[in-house]
């Protein structure tokens, strides 16, 4: 093996680790509501997740909210990051991401992506990207994949506990 080939192998081994080590976002806040549905189905939840994988699920059903803290799996977090970077959503024109339809009672999906502050950023608040239910057709499929992946970062046991607690709240 030549020295050139050796360095190429090392570079291709280390580069993916370096790329995945730093995310361009600091925190995600995702909200989902079933909209106007029957009492058995109606509910909503919010997932907050930071770039280290620590998160919180707030699950509301039958008028009661339960809160669960969790640590997301690193593999799921890396996949979520990859999807967000490759989707183009972080670089999209805000007019294509901004919702413009009135609430119709249908399910609601909204994600707020709090970005890392760029070097020299003078404003107090972090820059954000907001993707709403009625995102443009260009980004709709990618946005819904991101929603699903973010839901998948929450451990299955946390979801099971949330569903179980909600059933206890139902009074059945």
Low-confidence stretches: 6-22
Total beta-strand segments: 6
| Average pLDDT | 81
Question: Percent of residues in helical segments?
Answer: 25-40%
Strand fraction equals 25-35%
Short description:
With 172 residues, the protein is α+β, with helices and mostly antiparallel strands.
Characterization of the model:
This protein is of the alpha+beta class. The protein has a single domain (23-169), classed as 2-Layer Sandwich (Mago nashi protein), CATH 3.30.1560. Helices cover 40% and strands 26% of the residues. It is built from 5 helices and 6 strands; from the N terminus they run H-E-E-E-E-H-H-E-E-H-H. The protein has helices spanning 3-21, 74-87, 94-97, 137-153, 156-169; strands spanning 25-33, 44-50, 54-61, 64-71, 108-115, 128-131. It has a 6-stranded antiparallel β-sheet, with helices on one face. The longest helix has 19 residues, at 3-21. The protein is globular. 16% of the residues are buried. The model is unreliable at 6-22 (pLDDT under 50).
Write the layout of secondary structure elements.
Elements: H1 3-21, E1 25-33, E2 44-50, E3 54-61, E4 64-71, H2 74-87, H3 94-97, E5 108-115, E6 128-131, H4 137-153, H5 156-169
Antiparallel strand pairs: 1-2, 1-5, 2-3, 3-4, 5-6
């Amino acid at each position: 093996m030549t020295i050139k080939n050796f360095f190429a192998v090392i570079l291709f081994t280390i580069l993916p680790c370096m790329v995945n080590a730093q995310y361009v976002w600091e925190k995600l806040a995702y909200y989902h509501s079933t909209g106007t549905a029957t009492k058995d189905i109606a509910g909503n939840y919010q997932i907050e997740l930071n770039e280290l994988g620590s998160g919180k699920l707030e699950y509301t059903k039958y008028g009661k909210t339960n809160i669960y803290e969790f640590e997301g799996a690193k593999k799921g977090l890396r996949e979520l990051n990859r999807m967000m970077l490759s989707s183009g959503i972080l670089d999209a024109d805000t007019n294509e991401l901004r919702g413009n339809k009135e609430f119709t009672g249908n399910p609601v999906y909204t994600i707020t992506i709090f970005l890392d502050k760029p070097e020299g950023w003078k404003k107090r608040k972090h820059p954000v990207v907001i993707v709403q239910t009625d995102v443009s057709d260009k980004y709709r499929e990618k946005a819904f994949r991101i929603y699903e992946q973010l839901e998948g970062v929450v451990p299955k046991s946390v979801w099971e506990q949330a569903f179980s607690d909600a059933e206890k709240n139902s009074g059945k």
